[in-house]
């Protein structure tokens, strides 16, 4: 029994030594300060500009195009946001320039454009959409981040992305994304169960845990926070009431749909 407990604690343990300093305590606008019914839809330069003007940090999502350009976009499928079939990886960047985001004049931005716009004025949480066990998203994004002077951290659902950063860029703050995939998505695959309980932390040794706010009492997340003082990030807070209810369980907050 004690051996099993010890193995569990070892598996979920975050980074203990040579940890980055604590990061700026601000609220992070999920995909920018967006409204998909306005001229500033999600993950666009205009939504990022609005977040900066309001003094918020920014959370954004990165994917690779067919020609390996790093773009800011959340969904794998393009139907919801751009009204066209296919995935981001099915199109070149030049193809993507033909599509509008939610019918506005905003286009899917290059990651480089987003970094140039922000220019270190607010901190960033950057989610890497890791696909097919390929490190290319890590490598390509880091081509721009290695010279970026602003404050940022990376996060991913996939522990292999954290492993890449642990090996190649250990000085960068890295976070494990997780949720109760079984309750929220009906996904009972073994790998999702393992990630839900943070049992892959031994691979990436994250500096923070970004966990679905609907599961604020998740055991492994709370053990990391209480026992190892590992910061916990709530996603996604959607009301002032939800924010107040979640404060005892989290240290940082990613929000949308209101202004905290």
Detailed description of the structure:
The chain is an alpha/beta fold and 260 residues long. It is 34% helix and 17% strand. It is built from twelve helices and nine strands. The chain has helices spanning 2-12, 45-53, 79-82, 93-96, 111-118, 136-145, 159-168, 181-185, 190-196, 201-204, 219-227, 240-246; strands at 27-30, 57-64, 70-72, 124-128, 152-156, 174-178, 208-212, 232-237, 252-255. Helix 2 packs parallel to helix 5 (111-118).
Give, in spatial order, the strands making up the sheet with the most strands: 1-2-4-5-6-7-8-9
| Overall number of strands | 9
Q: Order of helices and strands, N to C?
A: HEHEEHHHEHEHEHHHEHEHE
Low-confidence stretches: none
pLDDT averaged residue by residue: 96
Distance between the termini: 45 Å
Helix content: 25-40%
Briefly characterize the structure.
The protein is built from twelve helices and nine strands. By secondary structure, the chain is of the alpha/beta class.
Tell me the layout of helices and strands.
Elements: H1 2-12, E1 27-30, H2 45-53, E2 57-64, E3 70-72, H3 79-82, H4 93-96, H5 111-118, E4 124-128, H6 136-145, E5 152-156, H7 159-168, E6 174-178, H8 181-185, H9 190-196, H10 201-204, E7 208-212, H11 219-227, E8 232-237, H12 240-246, E9 252-255
Parallel strand pairs: 1-2, 1-9, 2-4, 4-5, 5-6, 6-7, 7-8, 8-9
Antiparallel strand pairs: 2-3
Name the features.
260 residues; alpha/beta; eight-stranded parallel barrel; 17% strand
């Amino acid at each position: 029994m004690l051996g099993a407990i010890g193995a569990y604690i070892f598996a979920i343990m975050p980074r203990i030594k040579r940890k980055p300093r604590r990061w700026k305590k601000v609220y992070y606008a999920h995909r920018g300060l967006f409204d998909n019914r306005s001229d500033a839809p999600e993950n666009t330069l205009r939504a990022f500009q609005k977040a900066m003007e309001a003094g918020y940090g920014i959370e954004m999502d990165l994917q690779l195009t067919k020609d390996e350009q790093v773009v800011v976009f959340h969904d794998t499928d393009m139907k919801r946001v751009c009204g066209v079939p296919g995935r981001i990886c099915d199109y070149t960047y030049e193809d993507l320039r033909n599509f509008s985001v939610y019918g506005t004049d905003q286009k899917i931005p290059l990651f480089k454009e987003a970094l140039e716009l922000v220019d270190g004025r607010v901190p960033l949480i950057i989610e890497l959409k890791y696909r097919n066990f390929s490190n290319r998203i890590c490598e390509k994004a880091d081509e721009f981040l290695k010279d970026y002077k602003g404050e940022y951290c990376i996060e991913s659902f996939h522990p292999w992305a954290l492993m890449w950063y642990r090996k190649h860029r250990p000085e960068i703050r890295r976070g494990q994304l997780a949720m109760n995939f079984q309750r929220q998505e009906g996904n009972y695959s073994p790998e999702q169960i393992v990630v839900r309980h943070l049992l892959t932390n031994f691979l990436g040794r994250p500096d923070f845990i970004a966990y679905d706010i609907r599961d604020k009492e998740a055991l492994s997340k709370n053990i990391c926070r209480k026992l190892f003082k590992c910061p916990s990030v709530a996603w996604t807070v959607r009301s002032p009431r939800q924010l107040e209810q979640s404060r005892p369980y989290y240290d940082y907050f990613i929000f949308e749909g209101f202004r905290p």
